[in-house]
Amino acid sequence: MLNLFEPLFDIPTAYYGALLGVGFCVYYLFEVVKTPMLVCANGPFRSFLEEHVPLVRNKFWPTLWCFESRAQTIIASILRSRILPPIHYRREILTLSDGGEVALDWAEKGCSTTSPIVIILPGLTGASQAEYIKCLVSSAKKVGIRCVIFNNRGLGGVELKTPRMYCAANSDDLSEVIEYVKKIHPHVPLAATGISMGGLILGNYLAQQGVMARGKLKGGFLISVPWNVFAATKNTEENYFNLMLNKYLASTLRKNLQRLHYSSETGMFDVDIDTILKSQTLREFDSHFTVKQFGYKDVEEYYSNATIHDKLHLIDVPLLCLSAADDPFQPLQAIPVKEISETKNVAVVVTSRGGHIGFMEGMWPVKEEQYMGKLFSQFFTALFTTGFDCQM
Question: Which residues does the UniProt record annotate as the domain AB hydrolase-1 (predicted)?
């Protein structure tokens, strides 16, 4: 019997390597490289995107050596943090109605006083120097769009003035920021972008405001938004690698809360800080802190309020979203494809790969302008220059 396999032993090892290489290339070309799925109801908004945003029609070529979801998520962050230089902002401290303060960081170099403005909301613990923010600001600068980064309370180097932070379901602070920017720039087109949890805040704002938002924002753009918070937390607790991402974010929240709490002699928050600092996952942190901060009965009630997959029909301004089918927080089966396909004002571009805020493309993804930045600039350039109105 062994005699049948003896000829195989005489084949040089290089041939096996070449065969594996060919197999990998075939897999990459047919299973990895795909045209993104564009989900949107037939109507003016879908036609607008197909005509004015070329990326929705082009294939997405994930980085050949790094297209696994967690690798895209982590390595994209590491590479951008080293490639993209710090952004020099003009900082403005905005005092809110309850006495709290937030930092608005303006990226406006090279822009005119009439240049359109995009408000950017970072993710869970992000601020204006986050690598994905710099990616968007770099793309905006090339097309003459001003950006203002809205740093949540206690982030961006600003200390808390009141014992209140932020959460995914509450858009009160965002509403005040939008009103302020509209007041100082009344005749300038304004839009907004939210990344991850920032996308939840923006999505909830648009759903709560409904038709009223049309008088304030030309449109919105969400990146890697966890549409269904229940599914997002479940997905990040299911296996070892996803759980490590969950625990890392929870540890960042704990450290930030600890710093803010002990910034005053008596402690900033009236909470059981020792129990909160033992939280190992996002769900535990939300149960021990966020729920109590914002008056929810339990974490289920908070997540129900924070989720936006069931609120899309309330959104009345053009909203483009970018998600990856392999996002460890919100994979394809958790993206509300059916709901979006029936919504004329909301569209989602779903790439086959990309992870969470990854979307690395090309053999060596070291360029300042990357996929999500290109989609950002194409969408907003078209939105600001064509006079598109989704109600037409």
Answer: 116-362
